[in-house]
Design goal:
The chain is about 45% helix and about 15% strand. The chain is built from 11 helices and 10 strands. α3 packs antiparallel against α4 and α3 crosses α8. It is globular.
Length: about 280
């Protein structure tokens, strides 16, 4: 346990080299202390409940085989990062007991860190965010909408299905985020339609790539995530889900994801990742 906490601190210091460290400006890494109240950077302040929820989510993801370790043949993420690990949150929809527990934890986390009466509408991002938004909205007794990647039709509602949440405090929901880039497009679409978007929820946050916190903070959006890779590694320490050699390589990636990605042919910086994501969006 001490090793994981030391690595988290090292990663945070590297991510914000030349400026404030994560511990100084606040963190969404579960297990690190710090306040984000001054920056609007990230919510989900760490408590015993948050830690238990993070580990429960990690164990469920491992149990349903949503966690994939492949250090010898790295995955290429949407924004160009190379990663030895990949989370397939879409598998959650197939497992009713696991998904019920994850949704329960998600709603409780939102209530604790946003407020039980502070969200008017829940909006899912197409496509993976739609089922999670529906389940969360149902539990919260809130209206639900979803945001398209591409417009269909004309006018302000060309990108939004359900109803336009004009003037409504809207929670953006997706299954996961790596560097926060995909949240920008969905949040902008909602805001252009008149919605108030200051909070986003995901089941899983990679929690390692630089730029994610800064990107969302610049948009005044707080990210609330149930679990990160650090929590998965901690859960793996309880049971041998993967080989020690695979876990060791994953730790190397988490300690310095930019260098690991570059060594394996991926992007090497947040700026490069954002540029590649923007280019793909333009082509689409």
């Amino acid at each position: 346990m001490r090793l994981l906490l030391r690595i988290r601190t090292t990663t945070a210091d590297r991510e914000f080299e030349g400026g404030a460290t994560m511990a100084q400006i606040g963190s969404s890494f579960e297990g690190m202390s710090g306040s984000a109240s001054d920056t609007g950077l990230v919510a989900s302040r760490h408590t015993d409940w948050d830690r238990d929820a993070a580990l429960t989510t990690a164990r469920l993801l491992l149990e349903i085989k949503a966690v994939n370790f492949r250090p010898e043949e790295p995955y290429t993420l949407t924004s160009g990062w190379k990663s030895p690990v990949y989370i397939d949150c879409r598998r959650i929809i197939f497992f009713p007991r696991a998904r019920a527990k994850i949704v329960e934890l998600g709603v409780e986390k939102i209530g604790r860190h946003v407020g039980y009466e502070s969200i008017d509408v829940v909006a899912g991002g197409e496509t993976a965010g739609i089922p999670f938004a529906a389940w969360i909205a149902d539990r919260m007794l809130a209206p639900m909408a979803y945001v398209r990647k591409k417009p269909k039709g004309f006018g302000r509602n060309a990108l939004i299905e359900g109803d336009v949440p004009e003037g409504k405090r809207t929670l953006l929901v997706e299954d996961l985020t790596t560097d926060g880039a995909s949240k920008i497009r969905f949040a902008n679409s909602l805001r252009e339609a008149g919605a108030i978007v200051n909070h986003a929820f995901v089941v899983f946050f990679y929690g390692v790539f630089p730029g994610a916190h800064r990107t969302l903070a610049d948009m005044d959006i707080q990210l609330h995530a149930l679990s990160t890779w650090w929590d998965v590694l901690e859960a793996c320490a309880e049971r041998p889900y993967f080989s020690e050699s695979a876990a060791t390589e994953v730790r190397r990636f988490l300690e310095d994801p930019c260098a690991w990605s570059a060594r394996h042919g991926g992007v090497a910086s947040a700026e490069e990742a954002l540029a590649r994501k923007a280019a793909k969006d333009a082509e689409a």
